Amino acid sequence: MANDPAQHGPYLTNLDQVQQLKGADRTVLEKVAKRYAFRCNDYYLSLIDWDDPNDPIRRIVVPSIEELDKWGRLDPSDEKTYTVMPGVEHKYHSTALLLVSNVCEGICRYCFRKRVFIKPQSEYLRDVPAAIQYIREHPEISNVLLTGGDPLVLPTSQLADIVGQVRDIEHVQIIRIGTRMPAFNPYRITEDPALLAMFEQYSSPEKRMYVMTHFVHPRELTDIAIKAVGKLQAAGAITANQTPMIRGVNDDPEVLAELLAKLSFIGDVPYYVFQCRPAMGNSAYTVPIEEGYEIVEQAKARVSGLAKRVRFTMSHATGKMEIIGKVAGRVFFKYHRAANDADSGRIIAFASNPKACWFDDYEEVTGG
Prior knowledge:
Elements: E1 11-12, H1 23-35, E2 40-41, H2 42-45, H3 56-61, E3 83-85, E4 88-92, E5 95-99, H4 114-118, H5 128-136, E6 143-147, H6 156-167, E7 174-179, H7 181-184, H8 187-190, H9 193-202, E8 209-213, H10 223-234, E9 238-244, H11 253-265, E10 269-274, H12 289-300, E11 311-316, E12 319-327, E13 330-338, E14 347-351
Parallel strand pairs: 5-6, 6-7, 7-8, 8-9, 9-10, 10-11
Antiparallel strand pairs: 1-2, 3-4, 4-5, 11-12, 12-13, 13-14
Helix pairs in contact: 6-9, 11-12
C-alpha cells in the first residue's frame, strides 16, 4: 500500500479499464463519459452483479445513455448565488460550506455538482487562508461543512490542516465532513491511523465533528464499510447518513426501509432522504416528488422510531424544504432551513402535481 492512504486505488477513469463492460456497451457509454466524467475503483465495481443489467450499484456509478437526455441545469440549487469566494458558500447564517476538493473516489451518475468535474479548476477552494479569515469575521457561523468533491480524497495531512484551522476559530462549534468514502472505499478509513487520529484530536466532547455518510443502497453496507463507520465513531465522530432518492436504486419502499434499518442498527443516523436535484443528465434518475413522498412514508412504516427520524427534503435555492404531507389534492412543504430567516418554519400548500420533480414545478394555493 502507498504511504498516503488517500491514494489507495487504483482509480479507474476510463471505461476501457472496466473489463466487465462488453465492447459494444463501452463504445456507446464512452459518449456519455466524455460529457460527464467517469471515476470508480475495483472495490466498488466488485459490488456489482454484472449479470443483472438493472443492478442498482451499477446504476449508481456506470454511465447510462439516458444521461444525454436534455434536462436540468448545471447549478440546480443556485449555489453560485451564495458563493462568497471560489469554494466558499454562505447560504444559511450559521453555516459555511467549504468545497475543499474537486475530486471524488467515485462519481455518482446523478451528481448535482457535475460542474465541479466539468470545471475542476474554478469550482473548489484554492485560497484556504481567505476562507478561514472569512469565517473568523463572521461570528454567526457556528457550523462549517467540508464537502466537494469528497474531502477524504485529500491527503490526510492536508485535510487535517484545514480542519485544525477551522477548529481554532472559537465560534465554530461543529465541523461536518460530507463523504461517500465509507461506501466507495472504506479502506481509506480503516487503513489510515492518522485520519482517525485527526478525529480523535479535533472531535471533543464539547465540540463534536460529524461525518455525513452517503450510503444510498443497503448493498453498500458491506462488512468493511460497517467497520469503517465504526472506526469513525470510535474516534469521536458522530455519523449521520443522507441519501438521494434515485430511480432504479432505492425507489422501492422495501429497499429504502432496509437501508434505513441497517443504518440505524450501526448507529449511522438516517438524516435526510433528498429529492434528486434537477441537474443536467439527471432525468432518468429522478423520482417525482409525490411518488417519492409515498415511497418514503411506506419505508418509514416498516422501521422503528430510530430509523423514522429521516426527513424527505429538497435543497432548493431558497432553502431546505421538507415534504411533510399530501392530502385532499394538496401537497405541503415546510422550510426546514431557509436562506431568508423569515421563511424558517413556513408551510406552503400546493395543488397536487404528480409529475412535479422540483419546487418550481408547483403553483402555490393561496385561498380556500
